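Subject: sequence -> structure tokens, single chain

Hey, anyone have a minute? Need the predicted structure for the following. Not urgent.
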Amino acid sequence: MTTIALRPKFEDGTETTFAKAHAEALGRAFPALDDLAHQLDVRGPSSFDAYADVGLPEGFEGDEAAVAALVAEASPTYHDVAEAMAAFTALVHALEQGQTGSLEEAEVAPTLAALSELRRVLEHVNGRDVGFHLDVE
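Reply:
Had a minute. Here:
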């Protein structure tokens, strides 16, 4: 099974030191964090994906080649850092309070560490006119 990793990428090319372990923890928790974000009425991590705005064709049923073709034709979308920080802060607070949704118990600590590090990285550019997205590796 391939593990996806999610890393923050900045519009201006700002480099980060986001650890591989954090990127992989976010990748494993991605669907559960989206579910929890929905429960909290905040944006989920998938909404900050580079290609979150790529529209899938009507009746899409998981054809990876079709998705790859759409992404190849699209430009990445950059998102507001402050909005992301607010969403990720809400997720951290919920997890700290034991509101884990569908996240497996063994994934709570690594996910909290990854979200905390992601907030630290975003804080570094917050207030500058720099967008970011989560890049899937």
